[in-house]
Description:
By secondary structure, the chain is α+β, with helices and mostly antiparallel strands. The chain has nine helices and twelve strands. The chain has helices spanning 2-77, 81-93, 128-136, 177-227, 242-291, 297-329, 341-358, 380-398, 451-461, and strands at residues 102-107, 112-115, 140-145, 152-162, 165-175, 337-339, 362-366, 376-378, 403-411, 414-421, 465-470, 476-483.
Amino acid sequence: MMQERFEEAGKSAPRRKRRVVGMRRRWIMGSVFPVIIILLFIAAMTSVILMANYYSNARSALESKARAGVSYFNTYVMVSYTEYYRSAVRFADNFESADTIELQFLDKSGRIDISSRGQIIGLTPETPEIRRSLDGGRMETYSGKDPLTGENILAVSAPLQFDGSVVGVMRLVTATRALDKQVLLLTLVIMGIAVVISGVVLGVNLAFMRKVALPVAEVTEAAKRISGGSYGIQIPNRFDDEMGELVDNINQMSQQISQSEKMQTEFISSVSHELRTPLTAINGWGETLLADDSGDTEQLRRGVRIILRESRRLTNMVEELLEFSKIEDGRFTLRVEQMDLQAEVEDAIYTYRELFHQDGIDLEYVNAGEMLDQPITGDPERLKQVLCNVLDNAAKHGGSGKRIVVSMEREEDCYAVRVRDFGPGIPEAELPYVKQKFYKGSSKARGSGIGLAVCDEIVRLHEGTFDIANAEGGGTVVTIRLPISREEE
């Protein structure tokens, strides 16, 4: 047995591990992964926006410088070519941003006449914004590779005009190497932050899933073991949240199933014993009478009485089982009518008084002469069944007290019938379970253990209550409360 348990534990561990991995994968793919994708997308969009903003600011700065320079030349300098050339050379030599920006003056054909750096005079840059500015007479910009140097540049070309005609352009050019490096560094910082946050989110979720998935796997494994027949196992509860509540419910379910299974097993054993005893008596006395050739009338009458008594016991037991099966599958019904409950109680007492007297038990009826003639709505046969079952139980379990007291009184809008014995009573720990089907507790008395469950169901269908408690001074008291007919009131 111990080896089988180790083998079962060894088999369940990989299953539990696969279940945890599967839950973790689904959680990551369904919840964490989309969050990380969105986070990285936001970081990428932020980088693009910042890069566009940096380039926009740089372009605005160049356009502002170009606009100011062209305005000066077009207003004060463009009076003759000599004046223009002299002013352009002086302007290029004194250009204050020459370390980062190159100033160029181009003629109408797009060739460089003057440059703040001087090495490229006479060359034609051939960037598209130059021709657009010459042809359109407006400021144009360009961002991309410089055909002359092959590096990334940002250029602004503004038209120079003489007598209303465009005669050249002033061009400001700056390399974007430093700008690209700054944007790249900023992008790396943003993406790095996004990756760190993604890692934190992933780590936190993995830790969270470990705390959730492992308990779920344990609970699932325990539920599987319960469904496989390991009733009564308990899961250690280390949680104080919804998971703890789930574990408590499963533990309670396991305990109840175990208790129900135990009661059912005891019931089968008890019924088998109960059936065997009268059948043995019937079979034995039948064989005895069959083999008796003496013709003793007293012996014959005695044997027939025993056979009849045991047959009635078998009949009562079978009827209880049939009633229980009707309750279980919902076929248990009532045939209600207006009835006199007091008459039924007194009739049951009259029936049982002489039987109990033969066993030395005194059956008393306490009514104080009160006429309780208001009818109730009920099934006379079923209620008589309840009264007879309760009286029979009182004699069976409390007969050692040699006294049973039955009383009936009105309590507001209902009748209360009480049956009290003076026997040993019921252990307090067993009281909550005595009305459960198959439950017999520590009692050694004969019976199937379903009689009280049937009684409780009958009274419940009459909208009444069926209570069992220990009485003061010893013994057990059963209280049956049934509502008085509203139509009569």
